[in-house]
Design goal:
mainly alpha, Serine Threonine Protein Phosphatase 5, Tetratricopeptide repeat, TPR_rpt, membrane, transmembrane helix, TPR-like_helical_dom_sf, Tetratricopeptide repeat protein
C-alpha cells in the first residue's frame, strides 16, 4: 500500500468516527480510493455507521460486496458478507444473517485468515444462541475464543468473554458466567477503556437472581457509557433491560417510559429483532397497570413479531443452510481424496514402470554379458 493510499484510508476512518463530515465529503473521499482500498474503506464505513444509521451502513456494505466481487477481492468479499450478516441479524432476519455468515466463514477459511474466522464464528454463535441452540452456540463461541487468545487480541478476548458469559448464563451456570464478566471488566479497566458490556451482563445476572436493585445500578452505569460513545444499538439493549427490570419489580411508570423509548429507538435503528421482547414486556406492564385492552393488543404484536423472527420457517432455513454447508465440505473432502487417490495411482504406475524398466535393463545387461562370454568361448575354440 502506498503512503498516499494509507493516509486516505486513515482519513476516511477519522471522518466517519468523528461524525462531522457531510455525505458529499464522505462520498468524495470514497471516490478517490481505488480497488481493494475502496472496498476496505466501505467496510470500515459500515462498522462506523452500523450503530448510528443502519440503513446507510447497509448501503456501504452492499457497495463493498459488489466492488469486491468485481475485482475478485476475496478478503473484502468476506468482510462485506460478514457485515451484511450483522445487519440482517439486527433486523431479525436470522436465517439470512446465518447465510451471509456462513459464506463469509467459507471465504475466510479458504484464505486461512484467523481473525476473520474467529470473528465470523463468534457471530454464528450469536445466531444459534438467539435460536436457543446452545450446544451449537457454545461450539462456535469456544472455537472463536481460542483463536483470539492465540492471536492475543485483547479487545476481541474481552468481547468473547462477554459472549461466553452470556451463554453460560443462559444455561444457568451463573458462577461461571460471572467469572467471565468479571475477567472481561478487569481486562477493559487494565486497558484504560471500560466496556459497557460487562456491566450490562453483570446486571443481567443480578436480574436473573431477582436482585433488581443491583441490576438497575449496573444497567444505568452501562447506559451512561453507551450514551457517551453514541452507541445507539448498545443503548437500546440496556434501555430494554431497564424496562424489563422495572416491570418485574412492579414499577410500571418508569418501566413504560423505558419501553416506549425502546420501541421508538428500535424502529429508528430498524432493529426489529428486539420487537418480540419489547412487545412482550409492554403486554406484561399494561397488565400491571390494569390496562387489559392495551395488554391484549401488545400480546398480539408479540405473537406476530416472534413468529416472524423465531418461527419454524426460519429454523428450517437455518437447518437447510447448515446441511448445504456440510455437503459442500464433504464434496471438498471427497474431491481431495479423489486427487490423493489419483496421485497414489500415478505414483504406483510410475513405480511399476520403474520396476519393469529395471528388470528389462537387467535382462539386457545379462543378455549382453551372455553374448560377450559366448563370443569369447567361440573364439577360444
Amino acid at each position: 500500500m502506498t503512503h498516499k493510499k494509507l493516509c486516505l484510508l486513515l482519513l476516511c476512518s477519522v471522518i466517519v468516527l468523528s461524525g462531522w463530515a457531510q455525505s458529499d465529503s464522505l462520498q468524495a473521499a470514497l471516490d478517490t480510493a481505488k480497488n481493494q482500498y475502496k472496498v476496505k474503506a466501505l467496510n470500515e464505513f459500515f462498522r462506523a455507521y452500523h450503530e448510528k444509521d443502519p440503513a446507510r451502513a447497509v448501503g456501504y456494505a452492499r457497495e463493498a460486496l459488489n466492488l469486491a466481487t468485481e475485482i475478485n477481492d476475496k478478503k473484502g468479499q468476506a468482510a462485506a458478507y460478514n457485515n451484511l450478516g450483522i445487519a440482517y441479524k439486527t433486523q431479525g432476519a436470522l436465517d439470512k444473517a446465518l447465510e451471509y455468515y456462513l459464506t463469509s466463514l467459507r471465504i475466510y477459511e479458504s484464505l486461512t485468515n484467523k481473525e476473520g474466522i474467529a470473528t465470523t464464528k463468534s457471530n454464528i454463535a450469536t445466531i444459534y444462541s438467539m435460536k436457543k441452540d446452545y450446544g451449537q452456540a457454545m461450539k462456535y463461541m469456544e472455537a472463536s475464543y481460542a483463536l483470539f487468545v492465540e492471536m492475543r487480541d485483547e479487545d476481541k478476548i474481552i468481547r468473547s468473554m462477554n459472549n461466553l458469559g452470556n451463554l453460560h448464563s443462559e444455561i444457568q451456570l451463573y458462577e461461571k458466567a460471572m467469572s467471565y464478566f468479571s475477567q472481561a471488566y478487569q481486562l477493559s479497566e487494565k486497558k484504560g477503556n471500560i466496556y459497557a458490556d460487562p456491566l450490562m451482563n453483570m446486571g443481567n445476572l443480578y436480574f436473573r437472581q431477582n436482585n433488581y436493585q443491583r441490576a438497575v445500578e449496573n444497567y444505568e452505569k452501562a447506559l451512561e457509557l453507551e450514551r457517551k460513545s453514541n452507541n445507539k444499538l448498545g443503548a437500546l439493549n440496556i434501555i430494554i433491560n431497564l424496562g424489563i427490570t422495572y416491570t418485574k419489580a412492579k414499577q410500571p411508570k418508569p418501566a413504560q417510559i423505558y419501553l416506549d423509548e425502546a420501541l421508538l429507538l428500535s424502529n429508528e435503528l430498524q432493529a426489529y429483532a428486539f420487537h418480540p421482547t419489547i412487545y412482550k414486556t409492554i403486554a406484561e406492564n399494561y397488565s400491571n397497570l390494569g390496562k387489559w385492552k392495551e395488554a391484549y393488543e401488545a400480546q398480539l404484536k408479540y405473537d406476530e413479531t416472534r413468529e416472524k423472527i423465531y418461527g419454524e420457517e426460519s429454523t428450517r432455513n437455518i437447518a437447510q443452510m447448515e446441511m448445504i454447508m456440510e455437503f459442500q465440505q464433504k464434496d471438498k473432502e471427497f474431491d481431495l481424496l479423489k486427487q490423493q487417490d489419483e496421485i497414489t495411482k500415478l505414483e504406483l504406475r510410475n513405480s511399476r514402470l520403474f520396476i519393469v524398466l529395471f528388470i528389462l535393463a537387467g535382462l539386457v545387461v545379462l543378455g549382453a554379458l551372455n553374448f560377450y562370454f559366448h563370443r569369447r568361448k567361440i573364439r577360444r575354440v
